[in-house]
Write a structure and sequence with these properties.
alpha+beta; five-stranded antiparallel beta sheet; globular; SH3 type barrels; 25% helix; 268 residues; binds biotin
């Protein structure tokens, strides 16, 4: 693959993404506040399933828990896909796991053997974060209207491009492979894999992907601490359920299901 030659624009994106049935339109911005925010505006205005927002840079890239997502020009991939699956709102968070699997498969094409998923939404290369996923949704009267699947991939960032606070924990495809990658090549494979796993998810839910997702999970049998709002829970992970929740046993032997939160590995 050729290194990123800088021809990343609406025309080249349309050319490389147009044959993907999952994609019904591409909205490209050289700079946007956040592709998720923009996709949300478009979805509220009636945008269809499969409309994708892509930006070269974000000035207010958003992460989970109100964190910022570093989004400089010319280096990475920031995409938000509008989806309107016919599923219950309670099932929508499983789409984060589905997207994580698609990204883990994507990174494995470039860095085989170095990829893991940190539940629920981080994809790591050699233990450092190279992708974040922000899934947002709107539902009304108990039914799901749309889901925004926001994916940030660190492609060609160097260590010094990261904020100093992230340098020990974040990485990019370039840092792990020693070479720059063409973002058009990467994004076209990203949507091939997203389409593959989304179709399976629509038919079978997370249970149809669970086995493959587990190939990348490294938390089974490990001691974790889960932080959710102001509460903490510590225990050993005994499994990942059919709906994507973590099953865990605390020191007293009691079982818990973890639906949301920040997971920290404590070791065995
Ligand atoms: C996280 O790890 O906290 C999630 C980060 C998600 C970042 C992506 S970049 C594309 C999309 N637009 C955003 O503002 N956020 C997501």
């Amino acid at each position: 693959m050729a290194a990123d030659p800088g021809e990343f624009n609406r025309v080249t994106l349309l050319e490389c993404l147009k044959q993907r049935p999952i994609i019904t339109d591409v909205h490209y911005y050289e700079e946007v506040d956040s592709t998720n925010t923009m996709a949300c505006r478009l979805a509220l205005g009636g945008a269809r399933e499969g409309e994708v927002v892509v930006a070269d840079a974000q000035i207010k890239g958003r992460g989970r828990l109100n964190r910022a997502w570093q989004s400089p020009h010319g280096m990475n991939l920031y995409t938000s896909t509008i989806l309107r699956p016919k599923i219950e709102p309670a099932v929508a968070p499983q789409m984060t796991l589905m997207a994580g699997l698609a990204v883990a498969d994507l990174f494995s094409l470039f860095c085989p053997g170095s990829v893991s998923i940190k539940w629920p939404n981080d994809v790591l290369l050699k233990g450092r974060k190279a992708c974040g996923i922000l899934t947002e949704m709107k539902s009304a009267a108990g039914s799901l209207e749309f889901v925004i699947l926001g994916i940030g991939l660190n492609i060609n960032m160097n260590r010094e491009d990261f904020d100093p606070s992230l340098r020990e924990t974040a990485t990019s495809l370039k840092m792990e492979t020693g070479k720059a990658w063409n973002r058009l090549d990467v994004i076209s494979k990203q949507f091939d894999l997203l389409e593959k796993w989304y179709k399976i998810f629509l038919k079978e839910g997370f249970s149809g992907l669970r086995k493959d997702w587990m190939r990348y999970a490294d938390i089974l049998g490990k001691r974790i601490r889960v932080a959710y709002k102001d509460e903490f829970q510590t225990g050993i992970v005994t499994g990942i359920d059919e709906d994507g929740t973590i099953l865990m046993q605390d020191e007293s032997g009691a079982s818990h299901r973890v639906i949301a939160g920040d997971v920290h590995l404590l070791g065995r």
